[in-house]
Design brief:
The structure is a homodimer of 210-residue chains. Chain A is mostly helical and 210 residues long. Chain A contains 12 helices and no strands. Chain A folds into 2 domains: 44 residues, Orthogonal Bundle (Arc Repressor Mutant, subunit A); 146 residues, Tetracycline Repressor, domain 2 (Orthogonal Bundle). Chain A starts with 12 loop residues before the first helix and ends with a helix. Chain A binds a DNA duplex (30 and 30 nucleotides) through helix 3.
DNA sequence: AACAAATTTAATCATTTGATTAAATTATTT
DNA sequence: AAATAATTTAATCAAATGATTAAATTTGTT
């Protein structure tokens, strides 16, 4: 008897545990997660977690690095794309990023919460600084600000990175509050986020042009 | 011998424990906090925590409610002030709120993280919905949007509540990332936030007027 | 001062939790 | 098929953790 029942191969124990760990860590965070929760979610014996991953800490490190990639990759891919103008970067970033966040709504609070504990452990491996410096985005913003003149021309470009990420990410972090505020269910909330795909680029360009 | 050494009265054990609990819960979150950490921080015997507060859970509930008040009160006070125009609310809110957040930079990630677990437990007691409905803020936004005409006139006012809170709060939530990104220490980061006290109102008014 | 009430302490309990072990089972190689 | 290696399981360990207890100490009252 082969293990293949249909055309889809069932993942092995190691993969099952990692997927279960992603699910539980993302939902509850490191401190509130019990290794038994992960084993149960995977439908496997608890000892297999240590057999394949040595420790809860080590398994978390692997999961965290993957989630950090997911959180930063689509961001950096757009910001570093030398083909794109500033407006092109804004449009593409907002659309792609909100798409990712709609798919993984728990990702931002997980990342921010775990980075708030142990900030240096993970961020130094990510070299976010170097990537953004080399992307040319900061120069593009500064150039645009100079052109528009006015009050904003002397403002640090980092403010606009803060603005574009804030307007995309924060609604997902404060989702419980905004849902309580509006009375919207999951679908209604997603509808609002879909609207923001077109609204946020408009607002950001207004900020840059003032 | 009186307990009074100088003109300042030392707080009693109950108060010491609550203050220690605020400090530790805020820094580490509920799940990562050990009751022994709180007792040690207070410089008191562990049993006193249960003597005065019955349980970790109960102590947390008290701390969380106080921190929710701190997080929402200055917000609601401004938004509900019938004396203020829309522009007045924007200016006052941003200035006051960033002042609070500079003073308590860990407050937002704590609130968001704990609300993400148990969303209903705390939010239903806060009746955020009713307060915002009665504040008149949503009507003021809608009125302004109509006046300016254009694309934004049909957009839901909640988007602008999201925007103003996002631009103020998110930088504190993503502080480790922005510090890694800029290489700024605590003081440099605060300087950026001080700049945002004047910048955010400008940007928000641009959004409303487009 | 004598007594009662409130507070504080050290010791201890019962569970929970991350991890390990030795035996059992399954898969792979010879 | 036999032997070897890899995987899985149930049982167990040691440490951590929230909570309790009984005794000791301090404070307040008569």
């Amino acid at each position: 008897m082969s293990k293949i029942t249909s055309s889809i191969q069932e993942p092995g124990a190691e993969e099952k545990i990692k997927e279960a760990a992603k699910k539980v860590f993302l939902a509850k965070g490191y401190a509130a997660t019990r290794t038994r929760d992960i084993a149960e979610e995977a439908g496997l014996n608890l000892a297999l977690l240590n057999y394949y991953f040595r420790s809860k800490e080590n398994l978390f490190h692997i999961v965290m690095m993957e989630k950090l990639q997911l959180f930063f990759n689509s961001m950096i891919a757009v910001f570093s794309n030398k083909e794109l103008s500033l407006d092109g970067k804004i449009d593409t970033f907002v659309d792609r990023y909100i798409t990712v966040l709609v798919q993984y709504p728990d990702l931002p609070i997980f990342i921010m919460s775990e980075l708030h504990q142990r900030p240096q452990e993970f961020l130094k491996e990510m070299k976010v600084r170097e990537v953004i410096q080399q992307s040319g985005l900061l120069q593009q913003i500064q150039e645009r600000l100079k052109l528009s003149g006015g009050v904003m021309s002397t403002v640090h470009p980092i403010h606009f990175i803060m603005n574009i990420t804030s307007l995309c990410v924060f609604p997902f972090i404060a989702k419980p509050i905004f849902q309580s505020l509006t009375g919207l269910e999951k679908e209604g909330f997603i509808a609002l986020m879909e609207q923001r795909k077109v609204l946020v680029p408009i607002w950001i360009k207004q900020m840059l042009g003032g």
